[in-house]
Amino acid sequence: MVENTLNELERRVFGVLLEKSLAQPTYYPMTPNAIVAACNQKSNRDPLMDLDEDTVWDTLERLRGRGLVAKVLAPLSMRADRFKHDAREYFGWEKPERAVMAELLLRGPQSIGELKTRCSRMVPFEDKPAVGRVLELLQQADPPLVEELSRTGGRSAARFAHRLYPEGETPAVEAAAVPAGHVPTRAPEAVIPGSPNAASSAASEESIRQLSEQIDGVQSELADLHDGLADLRRRFEAIERQLL
């Protein structure tokens, strides 16, 4: 049996490595600066964080000590060292399990429908039952890695949460349903499948998803450029010292 608890910082860093390895393999393994940028993203994150490089470094070292993360040493001709997760070796997770766990670690409890939509940027699931099978597999692990939450706030769909929380910490519970007696000023329009409204809504969601991925990619590129400039500065200073 493996130790399966992660604190808030460890969940964010480990989740980022899982996510980027699947969604943006071009930038993986990741430099420390890229990990910082990904931890502090304003999209696909709950809660939002503002971590500094020292905090991320300390968290990476703790994860390395537990065998969850490994450092990829850079050759002398290359810039900063990079980091990768060892989720497959540690937990035995294949890509579908890694995608689902990444989402749960980075965004908290979600329904099967939400997971299917959000995991599509990492691993395509053909339908909701396919996601359900992955959740069932994670629930059957020893110890269980996922649990189904009680339905609250008038929700019709069950939500699932990971079970990597330390003792005494539980998934954040969403706000309760609208108070009794509250009457909305206007009922929301129903979106009928196959209607122009449904098509427009789906197109908007896809555009937002693509834009979010592009922003994430730019952030990763900027972090890599920052590392490259820092590496060039170190080399220049070393040459300067030799000439003096």
What is the strand arrangement across the widest sheet?
3-5-4
Based on CA atoms alone, the radius of gyration comes out at 21 Å
Report strand %: 5-15%
Highest-level CATH class: Mainly Alpha
Name the shape in a single word.
globular
Tell me the name of the CATH homologous superfamily.
Answer: Winged helix-like DNA-binding domain superfamily/Winged helix DNA-binding domain
pLDDT averaged residue by residue: 82
**How many separate domains?**
1
The ordered H/E elements are HHHEEHHEHHEEH
Indicate the CATH topology: Arc Repressor Mutant, subunit A
| Major β-sheet annotation | 3 strands, antiparallel
Question: How would you describe this structure to a colleague?
Answer:
- By secondary structure, the protein is mainly alpha-helical.
- The chain is built from eight helices and five strands.
- It has helices at 8-23, 32-39, 53-65, 87-91, 95-107, 112-119, 128-139, 196-243; strands at residues 69-72, 82-85, 110-111, 146-148, 159-162.
- Helix 1 (8-23) packs across helix 2 (32-39) and helix 2 (32-39) packs antiparallel against helix 8 (196-243).
- The longest helix is centred in the last third of the chain and has 48 residues, at 196-243.
- The chain is globular, with a radius of gyration of 21 Å.
How do you describe this structure in short?
This protein has 244 residues and is mainly alpha-helical.
Using brief descriptors, characterize the structure shown.
244 residues; mainly alpha; Arc Repressor Mutant, subunit A; three-stranded antiparallel beta sheet; two-stranded antiparallel ribbon; 8 helices
